[in-house]
Amino acid sequence: MLTPLFKGALLLLLAEACFAGIGAVVKFTSATASEAQVVFFRNFFALLLMLPFLYRHGVSLLKTNRWYLHLSRALTGIISMYCFFYVLARLPLAQGMLVLLLSPFIVPIIARFWLKERPSKLTLFAILLGFIGVMLALPGSSGGLDSIMLVGLLSAVLVAVTKTTIRYMSDTEPAVRIVFYFSLLTAILSAIPLPFYWQPLNNEVWLAFVAMGVLAAIGQLAMTRAYAIAPASDIGMWTYSSVVFAGLFGYLFWQEPVTLAWLGGVLVIFYAGYITTRQRLL
């Protein structure tokens, strides 16, 4: 029988595959659509896919006494999206995903002070290894690149806050409610700047937006369930798995090179993920 930690890790792997797919769609649409359009339609189509859950569960799905946490998560989530999509449009896909993957390094720090979760020494060591792996795989610094990295770092911090918020509210809020409110609130918030940044879209971009909504809904459900059944500080390292999917998509669709530095960083990252999960299985 699978342990909650193992189930959480598998769900997080599924979520990260979906998020890497979203990254590929964002990169594909960035040449045609504005960032405001990408953010809105990512949330709008995800919301449409969540409507059947509302029909199935009825108004009971909307009942919550923790609306402030849903709103907080939506605000941090949408700002992180704008930052993340900005980075993806300006870096190779695999490297752009790596910038976001600094968040697992930050999650246990936030969880320590907010949720009072104490990561073990081995988990802390694994987190440090993962951070080293990210730094190894990133490209060398330059003036323009440094500013992009700062935006990516802000996105990573906000993602870490978002994931810790999920863990905090999961004792009373089911995964479907968390994802539904996230999709609803982010769709509303991202609609505000849309008229000011509207650009004509072709049929391929519209199809890509639909695919992005599907991936977003599946990824959010899987991630939310993962953090509901397992501590954020123990499974957060598996967020790094999206870099493999991103590297594959970047190579297949844009012929982006897989460098030795990137490959070495990925190996370090996965070893870090292995030892932090292995300690709980023993």
Order of helices and strands: HHHHHHHHHHHH
Structural class: mainly alpha
- Global morphology: globular
Provide the residue-averaged pLDDT: 82
The profile of the biggest β sheet is: none
Distance between the termini: 15 Å
Number of helices: 12
**How many domains make up the coordinates?**
1
Uncertain segments are none
Measured as a percent range, the helix fraction is: over 70%
Question: Approximately how much beta-strand content do the residues carry?
Answer: under 5%
> What is the oligomer described by this structure?
single chain
User: What's the total count of β strands?
Assistant: 0
Radius of gyration: 18 Å
Describe the structure.
- This protein is mainly α and 282 residues long.
- It has one domain (4-281).
- The chain has helices at 4-29, 35-57, 67-88, 93-100, 103-114, 121-137, 143-169, 175-191, 203-229, 232-235, 242-254, 260-281.
- Helix 2 runs antiparallel to helix 3 (67-88).
- The mean pLDDT is 82.
How is this fold's topology laid out?
Layout: H1 4-29, H2 35-57, H3 67-88, H4 93-100, H5 103-114, H6 121-137, H7 143-169, H8 175-191, H9 203-229, H10 232-235, H11 242-254, H12 260-281
Helix pairs in contact: 1-9, 1-11, 2-3, 2-8, 2-9, 3-7, 3-8, 4-11, 5-7, 6-12, 8-9
